[in-house]
Amino acid sequence: MTPGAFVSFIAAMSLMFEPIRRLTGVNAILQKGFAACDSIFEILDKKVEIHEYSLNSPSQIIENRDGMMIEFENVSFRYPATDQYSLKDVSFKITDREFIGIVGSTGSGKSTLFNLFAAFYLPTKGKINVNGVSIEGLSKKSLREKISWVGQPVTLFDDSVFSNVAIGNTNASKSDALKALEIAHCMDFVEKLPDGIDTVIGPNGSNLSGGQRQRLAIARALLRNSSIYLFDEATSALDSHSAGLIRMVYDEIKGHKTLVVISHDLSTLTNANKIYVFDNGSLVESGTHSELIDKKHYSKLVNK
After folding, report:
1. pLDDT tens-place string over residues 50-106
2. In a domain, 52, yes or no
3. How far is it, in rounded angstroms, from Cα 281 to Cα 222?
4. What count of other Cβ atoms lies within 10 Å of the Cβ of residue 56?
5. Over the stretch 157-194, which tens digit does the pLDDT of each residue have?
6. What is the DSSP string of 231-250?
7. What is the CATH number of the domain that holds 221?
8. Contacts of 119 by beta carbon, 8 Å cutoff, 6+ apart
9. Number of other residues whose CB lies within 10 A of the CB of residue 278
């Protein structure tokens, strides 16, 4: 090989190095894309939920009211992928504007109740009545318009405080949003933000603390002015100050709307009208905090 050919070869190799190096990174990019596609196609492949009943039929629409009555009659439920029942022959009644606590160990069926409240699933056995009408005969759209659900983790968007709070009520004004923020005890930190209610809070509210994000989600729920509020472990993983503020929100809602709270923090339920205790999918005890304090299952939860 002549010196000129050798130099040309080395030059060609050096020019090829960078494209080859980049090519090795293509696989990593493709794998990320495939993972994202799996999530997207999982949603796209789901069957479209059909609202079988006409929204113009008064008998199938839940009337507008400040509270909601829910009755479970011998309800048992198991998820489609398992033979094990998550709920077993459960019967109870939630009356208009009551504050109800739902407690029990992990896996006792508490969150399944909320899935049934919102008709994400129908009972395997038994019957659920909403305001005296079987849930199977109600428009799901009408039902869910009356429900606000706050859980963990909270989902927020890279937008302003106002846009995040008003996402469930697009007709709300900034004045309405400020009232909801005040009830949810958000104004102490919103007023300190650079642009107040117009401040962009980052992806999933990354510019806020966990307690602030949780209270913002509660303000969003309050602005919907729903008939029933479902709080699923809304105080979990919060510091005592934030948890105390959320307990104050419960007291604000009590007596005005139907409020159902799942909580491991039993101190948040001392003012509940009634507490239902679940164990292994069964309703084992019910009563007020003072009535249950000496009962077997509830006292075990208190002393954990």
Report:
1. 555 444 444 467 666 667 889 999 999 999 888 999 999 999 999 989 999 999 988
2. no
3. 30
4. 8
5. 999 999 999 998 989 999 999 999 999 999 999 999 99
6. EESTTTT--HHHHHHHHHHH
7. 3.40.50.300
8. 135, 138, 140, 143, 144
9. 24
